[in-house]
Amino acid sequence: MKDLIKKLTEVCSPSGREDAIADTILDLLKGHIDGYERDRLGNLIVWKKGRSGKKILLDAHMDEIGVIVTNIDENGFLRIDPIGGVNPRILLGARLIIDEVVGVVGVEGESRDELEENLKKMSFDKIYVDIGVRSKEEAEKKVRIGSFGTYLPCFADLGNRILSKSMDDRVGCAVLVEVLREIDDPKNDVYCVFAVQEEVGIVGARVAGFDIEPDVAVAVDVTGVGDTPKALKRISMRLGCGPALKVMDGRTISDRKLLNMMENLARELGIPYQMEVLPFGGTDAFGYQLTRSGIPSMTLSIPTRYIHTPNEMVDFNDVLNTVKLLREFVKI
Questions:
Q1: Residue 126's closest CA among 116, 138, 134, 137?
Q2: Which are the catalytic amino acids?
Q3: Which of 83, 241, 269, 302 has an alpha carbon within 20 to 30 A of 16's alpha carbon?
Q4: What is the DSSP string of 191-259?
């Protein structure tokens, strides 16, 4: 399954430009689904039909954070703005890929004092992208205003841990792909939504479930952890302790019955799990809760270090246990 995660994380598809990752997911699912569609927003919806008449929706957003080119100066340096939650401090020194052109992020500073001040108060007004050209004309042959970019792919297998850009939420996409591969004759109809534009406001999930009208929805996404030095004290989640059953985050409170069902199933299967309360953030579960008259929803999270950086880290056993739990959940 590590190869699957590597393949998905190495695709560069920021919010609003998800075609490449959707094509990759469809290719991986050949022979494992009964049908699919792409809705008008770009959500990829696939399904396997069951016998019970009950519909279960599983969701993972397939977009990733990124940047967009806003200006090109006379010397060919690019100015950028964020797509989603990109911190300019994290960008400094990072390699980006913009329209298949690689660049590196630098910071302004005409004196040591100015440089130190800019480093203290980093903003998108102070940084630029160097794509190795000498003029605006040369740059415009490679990129243009409105070009989208992401972190350059950098997958690393560390044994029990794996590291890459865009684990948020390609690791969730990998979980859904693997679940679909492993269920041959589902009891219930299983719909998997690979949603667009989660990183810019939970856009795709607000419409994806409208025509499906599922009985329940489970979003699979990453969550923050409190297991690194001087991490946030109010966060209990840790790598290697199993998938996290979200009780609440900054946007949603999970459906109580659904949450209890998932916890009881994990106990029955002997799968390690954690309860999650995240004092910020949100997932696609929020979108499903607002669909039609409301869909009972929750989030199943994969604890992740260094979210929204080029090097997001997950525990491989947490991923495998998430697959195992969801594979059995869709049979209920």
A1: 116
A2: 198
A3: 302
A4: EEEEES-GGGTS-THHHHTTTT--SEEEEEEEE--S-STT--TT----TTS--EEEEE-SS-B--HHHH
- The angle at the Cα of 168, spanning 39 to 46, to the nearest 5 degrees, equals 30
> Two tokens at 325?
């739990």
* Structure confidence by residue, pLDDT tens digits, 238-256: 999 999 999 999 999 999 9
pTM of the model: 0.96
Going from the N-terminus, what domains does the chain have, and what CATH number goes with each? 2-64+165-329 (3.40.630.10), 66-151 (2.40.30.40)
H or E stretch covering 160: none
**124-154 burial: b if 16+ Cβ within 10 Å, else e:** eebbbbebebeeeeebeebbeeebbbbbbbe
CA atoms within 13 A on the CB side of 258: 23
Express each pLDDT in 146-191 by its tens digit. 999 999 999 999 999 999 999 999 999 999 999 999 998 899 999 9
Specify whether the CB–CB gap between 175 and 183 falls below 8 A: no
DSSP tally for the chain: helices H, then strands E: 10, 17
- CA 103 to chain centroid, in Å, comes to 23
| CA dist., res. 124 & res. 107, Å (int) | 9
